[in-house]
Design goal:
This protein has helices at residues 3-8, 12-27, 32-48, 52-60, 65-81, 89-95, 102-106, 112-136, 147-150, 155-178, 183-198, 203-217, 225-246, 256-261, 267-288, 297-308, 321-328, 343-373, 379-395, 405-419, 424-431. It is mainly alpha-helical. It has a domain at 57-108 and 296-432. Helix 5 (65-81) runs antiparallel to helix 18 (343-373) and helix 16 (297-308) crosses helix 18 (343-373). The longest helix has 31 residues, at 343-373. The model has no long low-confidence stretch (mean pLDDT 88). It comes from Undibacterium seohonense.
Length: 432
């Protein structure tokens, strides 16, 4: 429904939140302020749309409600046990409540907006791929709206890679599900995939795409001989490849920005060099604890793990990671890092073992919902939810997926697409 038709409809206030929500996936591929503005606009429209009884019913019936309540309860409890660091506690505490923003989106319910949101997500991925190609040709203007495509801006640039990986995997699923082999679908997928591999400069995103492809291939894993053989062969080939790469000479630099600006490397060269760097970084750290600026995550993980061992049950308190890490890593290359780049370690460090289990409980619930949806009328969206959840769980091993709002709100917007309209009642009905 177009905006003019929406306004002339007498029920336009009830329909406006869904219409706004359908366009939010498109905002994810630009400056983060655009995503936040879209979220604020959605929340305003949602607050003014009325029908609060139906909204509350949908939110209370969500299978994610109790796991999210559990995480919030643990965060409140831990906040009473440990001291509050000045200037850090409020922001850190709010990060553990991020999932609550999902429920207004879920209260919109199912509808045509979901498929429209998927199409807008694919459109955003196509635009992002085009901007990456324009930047590789040196013709993209250095303006704020597309700055993340011109310069490697840390978390925003990493998010762009993750979004391209998820979009490419969702495209494959749509292609398989609809059995619609139009040439333009295949070309769109290839167009996004090439941009992901050669232009996005994200190792995590490239690995994530391969993982999601594996999930699509083995979605009905049943321990058949060809499935076991394929996995064993893949692991064997990967082992040989890693062993070979470990013996190659070290690249001149492992920083993507230097490869592009100082050495004028092509996208293929940057991709291959970063793959070599990753293997060498793991090898060097395992042998002599040697790290570089590009590979400091290994040092981050080791130091954080050692600090977790000091208080594994109750953690160290919300917002205490930064100050404690700076003291722990004094004189080391990772001393100025602001997060451990791993949500599992962060939750365990600050909330203790209960916080880690609460996080796993939320993501485990999402996987359970996806598994149950396969047997119902929403089976098409089941794989979208499964791939997105696996993507969050995988990316959380290397980035602050929930700790940073740039990642967290983007993932919540995408989660609303397959989860809206799904509740405990419909899930029980499909499994009985």
């Amino acid at each position: 429904m177009s905006i003019p038709k929406l306004i002339t409809n007498p029920d336009w206030r009830q329909q406006l939140p869904a219409q706004i929500l359908s366009y939010l996936p498109l905002t994810l591929f630009f400056q983060v302020g655009l995503m936040y503005a879209g979220l604020v606009l959605f929340l305003l429209a949602w607050a003014l749309s009325g029908d609060w009884q139906a909204k509350l019913v949908r939110m209370r019936s969500s299978a994610l409600l109790w796991p999210v309540i559990g995480l919030s309860f643990i965060s409140v409890l831990i906040s009473f046990i440990h001291a509050h660091p000045a200037g850090e506690f409020a922001a850190a505490f709010s990060h553990y409540q991020t999932y609550w923003f999902l429920f207004p989106m879920l209260s919109v319910g199912s509808g045509a907006w979901q498929q429209k949101a998927v199409r807008n997500f694919f459109l955003g991925a196509m635009i992002a791929a085009s901007l990456f190609y324009l930047n590789s040709l040196g013709v993209l203007p250095d303006i704020k709206l597309v700055k993340s495509y011109v310069f490697y801006e840390g978390n925003k640039s990493i998010l762009l890679g993750l979004l391209l990986a998820i979009a490419a995997a969702w495209m494959l699923h749509e292609w398989r599900w609809r059995k619609n082999c139009h040439v333009w679908r295949a070309l769109s997928f290839v167009y996004v995939l090439i941009a992901l591999v050669l232009c996005a400069k994200s190792r995590t995103a490239s690995l994530l795409f391969l993982l999601l492809c594996g999930l699509l291939i083995f979605r009905n894993f049943s321990f058949r001989w060809w499935q076991l053989g394929a996995i064993a062969s893949s692991l064997f080939v990967a082992g040989l490849g890693i062993s070979y790469v470990a013996r190659l000479p070290a690249p001149v630099t492992c920083l993507a920005q230097e490869m592009h600006e100082d050495y004028q490397m092509s996208g293929v060269q940057i991709f291959l060099n970063r793959a070599i760097c990753t293997v060498h970084q793991v090898r060097d750290f395992g042998q002599n604890k040697q790290v570089t600026q590009d590979g400091m995550r290994l040092e981050l993980y080791m130091n954080t793990w050692q600090m977790i061992g000091q208080s594994p049950w109750l953690g160290h308190g919300i917002g205490n990671w930064l100050s404690m890490y700076q003291e722990k890593a004094e004189g080391q290359i990772s001393v100025n890092m602001t997060t451990p780049h791993n949500d599992y370690l962060l939750y365990w460090f600050e909330l203790g073992i209960a916080g880690l289990l609460a996080l796993l409980g939320i993501w485990g619930t999402q996987l359970r919902i996806a598994r149950q949806m396969i047997h119902g009328t929403q089976s098409e969206k089941a794989m979208l939810l499964a791939m997105l959840t696996v993507g969050m769980m995988f990316a959380a091993s290397f980035n602050a997926i929930l700790r940073d709002g740039v990642f967290a709100f983007a993932m919540l917007i995408l989660l609303a697409i397959p989860l809206a309209g799904v509740n405990e009642h419909t899930l029980r009905r499909t499994t009985n």
